[in-house]
Write a structure and sequence with these properties.
Layout (H helix, E strand, L loop, with lengths): L1 E3 L1 H14 L4 H19 L7 E6 L3 H15 L3 E6 L8 H12 L3 E3 L13 E5 L14 H9 L3 E4 L21 E5 L2 E2 L7 H5 L1 E5 L14 E5 L1 H7 L14 E5 L6 H13 L4 E7 L3 H7 L4 E5 L12 H8 L4 E4 L7 H13 L4 E3 L21 E3 L3 H8 L3 H6 L1 H9 L5 E4 L5 E4 L2 E5 L11 H14 L4 H23 L6 H15 L2
Parallel strand pairs: 1-8, 2-3, 2-5, 3-4, 5-6, 6-7, 7-9, 10-19, 11-12, 11-14, 12-13, 14-15, 15-16, 16-17
Antiparallel strand pairs: 1-10, 17-18, 18-19
């Protein structure tokens, strides 16, 4: 599913009106028809339905007026609360306001709520649209509170008070049961907390151009089941462990051997045929005990419990054997390990998945990514992404899609940003995950994600495809487990026994 930023939605409107010569009133009429149709289907069993519409002065309010002009013809009782005088309405909105007035629709120009609140069967929120940011005007707040108290509310294009780009919400934003959005969903509707404010989303055709070249460098999509279905195929009957892919793993340190276990077992559970996991020699017995299905390779650590720069040759001797290398989970923050990572990423010629402590050399040194000569994906959470970009996490969140866009202009790899939900971005494309839940915010969950991605690279997928598959399967697995065990009790190792079942859904 295509997703639009606020700017892309505005650009599409301008193309329709200026280049394709489609009248603004025609677009608004089409929006009204779609709104009316969905409202009718919702109230089909209600005798003599009574509808309230709260309209702002802009085109969002105009869509509300256009819907009212159709609903009144269909025999619905309609009342409109216009939060502006008619003279302040946009030209297209005024056109449908006047039609409603001529048809005898009840229009109230009240800035304050009526003392006796009517009991409507359904309310339509048409106060502010995709141009909103920040906080709602204080005069709108009583109306949005009323809308949130009603038994059923449908928002036009986007819930009033939701930022179309960021998913951030005004403190009194409308929390709709359904949202009827024009042409395509807006990216902020897929990001929390905005996603929780939208309810069921209907994308409706109002006659906007289907193909256009956006001025924005980023094309956004919602990652769906259908896309994953197209990416994952059945395992060939004639396959063998080497054909299924060889994963090399540099992970773990004293106190964090679990990260090596989780990333290794996740790769195996995701279809990798064989793994080799490096272990600091003083911890090798632990690795051997936990990773029974994979091989381990001890690296001399002088009893320190972490990897040293001198392990470089030992590791490089196995690189040619591999199809992909994992670097980072649980490596720790010792400077010796960071030197090793730096040396490796500059010289490895196989795809790399970089996670967690693998980012240590890149903090305040973002240019270092340009010294990686192979395909690679990074999987930071927001805090790690903040350190990589040297941008405060709050500033990043103020407009995360925009900041991802800026980052990708000079970034030579694939980014998987763990968030609510997560993103994958590569070149000038990006996608937002359609699944996942807060239960995945638990120690070790990212190690499992890393293993899934590496397994699919090893099985022949491109780095960007593997990142998308990994993000989706990881989120879906978390959702399946949460339905049975709840979100709070979810731990990373739970994912291992479920990954294969979830992947099998998409094998065809």
């Amino acid at each position: 599913m295509q997703l639009l930023t606020r700017e892309q939605a505005r650009e599409l409107d301008l193309i329709a009106i200026d280049k394709n010569k489609i009248l603004g009133t025609t677009l608004m009429e089409n929006a009204g028809k779609n709104i009316a149709s969905i409202v009718q289907s919702e109230l089909i069993t209600v005798h003599n339905p009574n509808i309230g519409i709260v309209c702002g002065k802009g085109n969002n309010g105009g869509d509300g007026f256009a819907a009212a002009s159709i609903l009144i013809d269909e025999g619905f009782k309609v009342s409109i609360y216009c939060l502006s005088s008619s003279k302040n309405l946009s030209n297209d909105s005024l056109y449908f306001h006047d039609i409603c007035s001529k048809k005898g629709v009840a229009i109230f120009y009240e800035k304050e709520l009526p003392q006796l609140l009517p009991n409507f069967d359904l309310m339509i929120d048409a106060i502010v649209g995709t141009g909103f940011s920040g906080e709602l005007y204080k005069e709108f707040v009583p109306w949005t509170k009323w809308l949130n108290e009603c038994s059923a509310t449908i928002s036009v294009d986007i819930p009033s008070g939701l930022n179309a780009n960021t998913g951030m919400c005004s403190s009194n934003a409308v929390k709709a049961d359904q949202t009827i959005t024009m042409d395509s969903a807006k990216i902020g509707m897929m990001l929390e907390p905005g996603k929780s404010h939208c309810g069921l989303i209907h994308c409706v055709d109002i006659g906007l151009p289907k193909i256009y070249k956006s001025k924005s460098p980023m094309e956004w999509n919602l990652l769906s089941d259908d896309q994953i279905n197209s990416m994952i195929q059945n395992v060939e009957k004639t396959t063998h462990k080497y054909k299924q892919g060889k994963v090399l793993i540099l992970a773990g340190s004293i106190g964090m051997t679990g990260a090596a276990f989780l990333s290794t077992m996740s790769a195996l559970r995701s279809g990798a045929g064989i793994t080799k996991t490096f272990a600091p020699s003083s911890l090798n017995a632990i690795y051997e005990k936990k990773i029974t299905e994979g091989m381990t390779i001890p690296c001399e650590d002088s009893g320190n419990g972490f990897f040293l720069e001198e392990n470089y040759d030992t590791i490089m001797n196995h690189v040619e054997w591999s199809d992909v290398i994992i670097i980072g989970p649980g490596l720790g923050s010792d400077s010796e390990t960071a030197k090793l990572v730096l040396k490796l990423i500059k010289n490895i010629n196989k795809p790399i998945v970089i996670d967690a402590d693998g980012f240590q050399p890149f903090y305040n040194n973002i240019e270092l990514f340009n010294e990686i000569h192979s395909k690679f994906v990074i999987t930071p959470h927001l805090g790690e992404f903040s350190k990589i970009t040297d941008i405060d996490s709050k500033i990043l969140m103020d407009d995360l899609p925009k900041n991802i866009n800026l980052f990708m202009k000079d970034f030579p790899g694939t980014l998987l940003l763990k968030n609510s939900p997560s993103f994958v971005a590569w070149e000038a494309k990006g996608c937002v995950n359609s699944n996942g839940n807060p239960g995945l915010a638990t120690a070790g969950s990212g190690d499992v994600l890393t293993g899934i991605i590496a397994a699919f690279i090893a099985q022949g997928k491109s780095v960007e495809e593997a990142a998308q598959i990994g993000m989706f399967i990881h989120g879906k697995t978390g959702d399946e487990l949460a339905r049975v065990n709840g979100q709070r009790g979810l731990i990373a190792s739970d994912l291992l026994n479920k990954i294969g079942q979830v992947i099998s859904i998409y094998e065809s």
